[in-house]
Amino acid sequence: MTKPAQSESAVFPPSPEMTAHAHVDAAKYDAMYAASVADPEAFWGEHGKRIDWIKPFSQVRNVSFQPGNINIEWYGDGTMNVAANCIDRHLATRADQTAIIFEPDDPNEAAEHISYAQLHRRVCRMANILETMGVRKGDRVVIYLPMIPEAAYAMLACARIGAIHSIVFAGFSPDALAARINGCDAKVVITADHAPRGGRTSPLKSNTDAALLHCKESVKCLVVKRTGEQTTWIDGRDHDYNEMVLEANDYSRPVEMSAEDPLFILYTSGSTGQPKGVVHTSGGYLVYAAMTHEITFDYHDGDVFWCTADVGWVTGHSYIVYGPLANGATTVMFEGVPTYPDASRFWQVCEKHKVTQFYTAPTAIRALMGQGKGFVEKCDLSSLRLLGTVGEPINPEAWTWYNDVVGKGKCPIVDTWWQTETGGHLLTPLPGAHATKPGAAMKPFFGVQPVVLDPQSGEEIHETPTEGVLCLKDSWPGQMRTIWGDHDRFEKTYFSDYKGYYFSGDGCRRDSDGDYWITGRVDDVINVSGHRMGTAEVESALVAHVAVAEAAVVGYPHPIKGQGIYCYVTLMNDQEPSEELRKALRTWVRTEIGPIASPDVIQWAPGLPKTRSGKIMRRILRKIAEDDYGALGDTSTLADPSVVDELIANRAKT
Ligand code: WT7
Q: What is the structure's pLDDT at 273?
């Protein structure tokens, strides 16, 4: 995790060229920000007009953060359709412009340029296929696809007919997929035969088959052909997309949706329990995704925008599909990984498609930095104008490498802090308005009111510099509305620790210039290669194994992943620790959750540090994993303090 740098850290002011070119300069930011918090109704009423409404809204917001009555509504009486906003309304002026550039995993396979007119036809056909399969407004559709254009068609087809999509990252296991299909009671799951990635393929259809064994028999499966490899087939349940698309009608009428009708559900990890279905709705989400895409990335007509995320994460939803397409942009969809066939791949794709804005995660930057700058320097990156980072705190070394080697000191870096829950950027420097600092998320976006609270008293800290927990004082249009099927959990998770505020789960520091630095999660959520994970999920996977009696999982600093997964495992009495068992547990967690949850370290723990009431003291386990024994703090309340010495003596190498 990044240590927040001091305020005397390096400061990079915006260049005069960027300031002249950008949508927003410093004076405009100040004026707009002041207006956005002084009169949110007026501000968001005006900016709500950036999308097309079928029936214009008359109410801008209806928000309460008060316990017992958590309610978030934006543009509540307006009606619109998200797909029509992302496609149809551009047809008059951009029918032949490329909407999506698809860059396949294998660089020898041709890239595909999909125009807005083509996108329209393909999305309509997919919409008609889904309707043939019985999907109607309000029904849920799970999407479990590789990073292929059909993933975007599927999202937009759902939006067109008013179905609610829930994307499951293709790296998740059959069990995780089943839990999500059942969690939202999906009618249809859309998958592909196989997913190529980094020169290997993963068997999505057979994963889906395995998942569907645990789901209602009525769930249907739509299968997209990607590699053409053989898969099993169940007549009646499985539907062949490539066959149906030949027959499907080219037009589907966009359904009139209320601004507050759900657009998608996206499962994300919390500090306790199973992943929760974050619900985003239509109007406010789209306004916010489009506006942040345009302003944070300084997007202009003719630019080629590339966000390297997967559509399985919120970053892909907001900044590969919805934000860019709502703005009539050209957006790149990349199926591969940064290091295949070699560590030049990202930069070759930038050169090939003349990418102007490039948005990636610190973990990718660190991995590529380790390969040396030769891989970057052999590519022509002169088209790049702006760089972005997201997903975890970026360490100053990686920031500096990104700035110097990739950006040649000419591209501002927007370090965007946000979450699945927030729909779009909340803290970020704006490229023409703000200086940047290596590792700082800097400033609130319009309408965003960050506050730093004292974690103990819950009081707002007004002094600066300061450090505490990061909360938001008021709503913004892209905010999640509820947890699918569990509004109480929504209130409990985000609005009950600090009453009257939305609690982000992150710690932060405000420096003497008033700029924000994210210091990382303050709850039991860890961030592994930009993937968010609840330590509780890994623990429950571990204890589900017959050999395991008890497990405690914490994060520890990892040079490339940001955080690694450190597991303390107590075995059943009849079990002997062995290298073999360690391997077996690793494989077990990978199949229970997915490869992203694979434990980095497993330490055998004959006992875990517990209070007399039996609560595991994770603070101590974190310190041992971090190799920071000096700061163990008070261990006198432990039932058996000698456990700690034992754990320290046998600490695993990290
Ligand atoms: C958590 C949210 C939203 C996009 C991808 C992750 C961490 C996100 C930053 C950043 C420091 C960051 C936070 C946050 N995070 N962006 N720029 N600097 N930390 O979405 O999976 O919902 O995770 O990622 O800890 O709470 P997510």
A: 84
549 alpha carbon – ligand 1 mean position (Å): 33
Q: Which residues contact 643 (CB under 8 A, 6 or more apart)?
A: 606, 607, 608, 609, 610
Instruction: Report CA torsion sign: 536, 541, 543, 547.
Output: negative
β-bridge pairing 330-334 and 195-197: unpaired
pTM, rounded to two decimals: 0.95
Q: Which residues of the chain have pLDDT under 70?
A: 1-8
* Rounded Cα gap, residues 345 and 322, in angstroms: 25
Structural domain includes residue 614: yes
Q: What is the pLDDT of residue 630?
A: 77
The label of the residue with tokens 């997309």 reads 241
**At how many degrees (to 10) do helices 579-592 and 174-183 cross?**
30
Q: Is residue 181 part of a domain?
A: no
Output the domain CATH number for residue 537. Answer: 3.30.300.30
Cα 229 to Cα 77, 206, 248, distances in angstroms: 48, 11, 24
How buried is residue 400: exposed, middle or buried, by Cβ count under 10 Å (0-12/13-18/19+)?
middle
What is the model's pLDDT at position 7?
44
Selection from 472, 470, 473, 441 nearest residue 453 by Cα: 470
- How many whole angstroms separate alpha carbon 630 and alpha carbon 403? 35
| Number of structural domains the chain divides into | 1
- 333 assigned to some structural domain: no
Residue found under tokens 């999660």: 521
The confidence score (pLDDT) of residue 205 equals 98
Q: Is residue 453 situated within a structural domain?
A: no
Name the residue of 320, 518, 519, 526 to mutate for ligand 1: max ligand atoms within 8 A of Cβ.
518
Residue 616 is given by DSSP the state B
DSSP state of 187: S
Domain that holds residue 559: 529-650
Find the residues whose C-beta lies inside 6 A of ligand 1.
268, 313-315, 390-393, 415-420, 441, 504-506, 518, 521, 527, 532
